[in-house]
Amino acid sequence: MTCLKPEAAMPADTGPNGADFNPFSVMQPRRPDTIPRDFRNGGRVKAADIAPAGVYLPNNNVMTPAMRSPDYVQMSTAAAITLGIMPGMLYRCACTRCLNLLLTYPEGCRANCAYCGLARHRESERDYADRNFIRVDWPAVPMAEIVEKVAADGENTPFHRMCISMITHPRSDDDTVTVLKQWTDRIDPATVPVSILSNPTTMQRADVETLKGLGADIFTVALDAATPEIFDRTRGKGVDSPHSWKKYWEILMNARDIFGPQKFGAHIIVGMGETEADVLTLVQQLVDLGGHSHMFCFFPEKGSLMDHLPATPRDQWRRVQLARYLIDYCDVRVERMAFDGEGRVTDFGLPQGELDAIIDAGIAFRTSGCPGKFREDVSACDRPYGDSPPSNIASYPFQPAGADIRRIRHQLDMEKPGEAYEPGEEFDDPVDNSEGGPDESGAAEARVA
Ligand code: SF4
């Protein structure tokens, strides 16, 4: 017996055609279907026009109410469990440290990104507030109730950070400002700092300045794609979506000027057809600009335009995760690394002993994102299992140890002599972090001299 949900979309041991990576030629999104007129622009929810009444749990066999930001926002299932809004437990985690909030409207996001569960093409299939996003449901909650609950916890809040995720909607810029003000009016940003996951397509430089002026701590841009070609194919003209690589970089550079060093960054999804050299060159570029990369493993989100494509093979993902950590936190430059003809990392640019210490510390393989309160290289953004099922973890939402590290080493083809990984052994006697076990604060030290 297992409590793990059966998953269909698992990474193969090797990628397409026996390769251990997802090549560009394979990672082509399917075309969006035509949406019937009555379903467009949130038509079904607006026609029913049901008044919201408190917390709305998605897919609960009731008609979706007409909920709108800034009065309502959605939050991740993990945040809802941590706040006590939903029942549930998180596998091997006590809670999440980041309160991820998502703006919500009956019309939903007007973009059509190929890997995203919120994309516009899903209008005929699910109302916006019922769409799965990054593998889970997102309950809708009155913003006033969230602020009340977090303010009541004061210094004892479990959250190390709050993050407002903007979407592509004409109201998104103004409502982000209102949500941020509502938060900072009651909650000291020194207690729970705020990050903005921006939507550059609707923003101008003045919007970035406004958010900084209102107390936002970190500003991030979800490039998601590692190259302009993949960006256009997955978020631009290739899928009838309004985003452009140029505009995203314009706002990223505005954020660099306005928020300053270490206070801006970019999200990147690994395994959408870029090479490892492509993505790590981008990571180095961000570090050279003074920012950080927040990295995710491609997972074929159900209902998305890429749900038929393979999840990123774990060996590709682990190589990139490790190399990204070395560049972001250990002063190793991409030029010191070596790559083969397919752009795969063949040398991480460090002596094996130093590399072993970094691998064994495990932090490189955790979720990445804006920092929390434990240490700079441990992300507050530890929402569990956003890029993989718990049965085959891509980004660890807890401190990996023991059998977890042996599995990681197996995936990297770097097992230590006499330490072979036994498939499934991490489920036999898992390290339990759910009651304050060895977690972030106990993470082993690892630094390159
Ligand atoms: S803009 Fe963001 S929320 Fe909207 S479809 Fe693209 S990735 Fe999803």
Topology (SSEs and partners):
Elements: H1 43-48, E1 72-75, H2 77-83, E2 98-103, E3 140-142, H3 143-153, E4 161-165, H4 172-186, E5 194-198, H5 205-213, E6 218-224, H6 228-235, H7 245-259, E7 264-270, H8 276-289, E8 292-297, H9 314-329, E9 338-339, E10 345-347, H10 352-361, H11 403-412, H12 425-428
Parallel strand pairs: 2-4, 4-5, 5-6, 6-7, 7-8
Antiparallel strand pairs: 1-2, 1-3, 9-10
Helix pairs in contact: 3-4, 5-7, 8-9
The chain binds iron/sulfur cluster.
Features:
two-stranded antiparallel ribbon, disordered C terminus, alpha/beta, single chain, eight-stranded mixed sheet, 449 residues, binds iron/sulfur cluster
Description:
Helix 3 (143-153) runs parallel beside helix 4 (172-186), helix 5 (205-213) runs parallel beside helix 7 and helix 8 (276-289) packs parallel to helix 9 (314-329). The protein has helices spanning 43-48, 77-83, 143-153, 172-186, 205-213, 228-235, 245-259, 276-289, 314-329, 352-361, 403-412, 425-428; strands at residues 72-75, 98-103, 140-142, 161-165, 194-198, 218-224, 264-270, 292-297, 338-339, 345-347. The protein has 449 residues and is α/β, with parallel strands linked by helices. The longest helix has 16 residues, at 314-329. It starts with 42 loop residues before the first helix and ends in a 21-residue tail after the last helix. Strand 5, helix 5 (205-213) and strand 6 (218-224) form a beta-alpha-beta unit. Strands 3-1-2-4-5-6-7-8 form an eight-stranded mixed beta sheet. It has a two-stranded antiparallel ribbon with strand order 9-10. Bound molecules: iron/sulfur cluster. Residues 109, 111, 113, 116, 118-119, 167-168 line the site of iron/sulfur cluster.
